[in-house]
Design a protein that fits this description.
Layout (H helix, E strand, L loop, with lengths): L3 H12 L5 H7 L4 H13 L3 E6 L2 E9 L1 H21 L5 H23 L2
Antiparallel strand pairs: 1-2
């Protein structure tokens, strides 16, 4: 089981493999002090690897480990199964409309949050 911050970091490492902890902290909106602990826990669980940057020994670059990929793949599978279960009563057309509406709302909320 992952905490919310752990899940966010793991997904961000998947999307931005090889980036440093500070960049990823910004991407997941975590302060740098919790961000130092979260990757350490994920590394202990063998979900990510942390490598020292060649040009700066203080920077740690994060990479998704095979176990992390497996965990995210399983979570995606469970999410899709839950989506199918929860939207089962509506037909394919209604399902597509529903997802389009959710996507529009999400895009709008992201725009509001970023000040656009």
């Amino acid at each position: 089981m992952l905490t919310g911050p752990e899940s966010a970091v793991l997904q961000t490492v998947q999307a931005c493999s090889g980036h440093d902890q500070r960049s990823l902290a910004t991407a997941v909106a975590l302060d740098t002090s919790p961000m130092a602990d979260v990757p350490r826990r994920l590394e202990t669980r063998r979900l990510i690897t942390r490598r020292t940057a060649a040009d700066d020994g203080r920077r740690k670059l994060l990479h998704l480990a095979e176990e992390g990929q497996d965990l995210l793949r399983a979570a995606e599978h469970r999410a899709r199964a839950l989506d199918r279960l929860l939207t089962e009563p509506i037909g394919a057309t209604e399902h597509a409309t529903f997802l389009n509406t959710l996507t529009s709302l999400t895009d709008h909320w992201v725009g509001l949050a970023s000040g656009s």
